[in-house]
Write a structure and sequence with these properties.
Helix content is 35%, strand content 27%. The protein is built from three helices and three strands, in the order αββαβα. The chain is globular and about 35 Å long.
């Protein structure tokens, strides 16, 4: 896995800004997946409004599509994984990796 072509947190932040106000912040880390293959993990905190049942599918699909196209993720070796949490859930759990 070459880290020279991987997106930076700054690039991730710029894409997240395009998705505001539904997306509050996105944290990226590089690790391996269940098969010990290189992976990019995106921890996406969305607004409580964006997490409502009638909006959730549209919002999460838009986030995946925007990040994939803007950062050209499928041309990279690590596979991208997206995890979502809403603002209230993060406020309750307060996991630093998501802040």
């Amino acid at each position: 896995m070459t880290t020279t072509t991987l997106p930076t947190q700054e690039q991730v932040d710029r894409v997240a800004q395009v998705l505001a106000p539904d997306v509050l912040r996105v944290r990226m880390n590089i690790d391996t997946d269940w098969a010990d293959c290189p992976a990019l993990y995106f921890k996406v905190v969305i607004s409580d409004d964006a997490s409502r049942n009638e909006r959730l599918g549209e919002v999460t699909n838009r986030v995946r599509e925007t990040f994939t196209t803007q950062l050209d993720l499928y041309s990279l070796e690590p596979f991208p994984y997206f995890n979502f949490r809403n603002q209230s859930e993060q406020a309750k759990l307060r996991e630093p990796a998501w802040d």
